[in-house]
Structure prediction request, 456 residues.
Amino acid sequence: MHVLMLGWEFPPFITGGLGTACYGLTRALDQRGARVTFVLPKAITSDHAAHVDLISPQTAVPHAALAVAGPSAAAGDPPPAAREGFKHVHFIGVRAGFTHPYQVSTAEGAVGQWSEEALHGAGAVAPGRIAGRRMFESAMHEYGGDLIEQVERYAYFCLSATQDLQFDVIHAHDWMTYPAGLWIARATGKPLVIHVHSTEFDRSGEHVNQRVYDIERRGMHGAMRVICVSQLTRNIVIHRYGVPEHHTEVVYNGVEMDRGDAGLSPIRSKDKIVLYFGRITFQKGPEYFIRAAKRVLDVMEDVKFVVAGSGDMARHMIEMAANMGIGHKVLFTGFLRGDDIKRVFSLADLYVMPSISEPFGIAPLEAMSHNVPVIISKSSGVSEVLSHALKVDFWDVEDMANKVIAVLKYPPLQQTLQEHGRFEVRGITWDGAAHRCLDIYGTVVGEMGRTALAGA
Prediction:
């Protein structure tokens, strides 16, 4: 099976769970013998990914990618692929003028516009009026102002870079890649599978950005299968986007148990450490974390709350802590990656995920793999697969605070969560996710073949 994978980010360029998921799934597919060609919107050099066979504008590229790379690129065969575990994976990085999908915009009104002629010419949508220009409202804080324009540009690049490639199925991750997937599917006749890691309802609540919603809905209805990261997400896809149930599948994310942290000594402190790890955005519920922290500190003095991440609500979070008089007890690390993530988990006594809407939530799995007990929002997909985690309603800060206090004050509870949690998380693997995806690929390829025969 040869999979054309369309993704928005990949290590080392990660802004959240999407990049982690793409890495874990791609690695597991590779280990199962599937061939994967991964198309990225940002060209990166082999200095950043020495463990994979990287094809980008800075390195040797196949003929099909020359249109993307430009005349300065040198054609040639890619270097050997079998490096640090990746055996069947090629990467194509395309030129794009953005960094990641969660950047804060400084140019209001810089929202790009979809080209009706381009969309119809590629056969991506049926003829009709394309949604008119609209300012980002609540989502403007989460997406770069010209992100939709860049999504369209990415689609053009993908179509050009893959025109001479041979593959069996297209797998597009999240809404930023759906137009590219639709265009390539129409041009090649190959089946499209889209992977919903998050929806506009998760990111913006009921105040959705209509243009993003339209892109999501078009992608879901244009795909042969819609992979959802949880039953929670599947319900949204069915009821909010009108996708038939039989076109949806649930494939839970996994976690890669990191043996590299075995020799990492915990950071000892007289203070207990409660960790928030993730983007600081409305969807993640940072306000509720601070409110619960205040209640905990009202009855416990030897506790510090560490916020590891960045986002548009970081300043508001800092101001909340200061106004509540707990600013000296809340530490902000900024965005972390690599070994710094291991260090922050080695420091933590407890991880809290207070998300308002979390399609899945990989961070709790990472915490449990590092022997850190977790408290998670019931409004999360990961709560469907975890038994040895404490669960709360995100809005119930009293309950959240009481559970934090219980874990910190009673070592037997903390130890039980650690031991059972680490054992449980060993069964939630990327290999299991890859196995499910391969089954789905086989199904849609077979359906496409039968459809072609019937029409012959």
Notes: Residues 46-83, 98-145, 261-267 have pLDDT under 50 and may be disordered. The chain is about 40% helix and 15% strand. The longest strand covers residues 35-40. The CA atoms of residues 371 and 419 lie 7 Å apart.
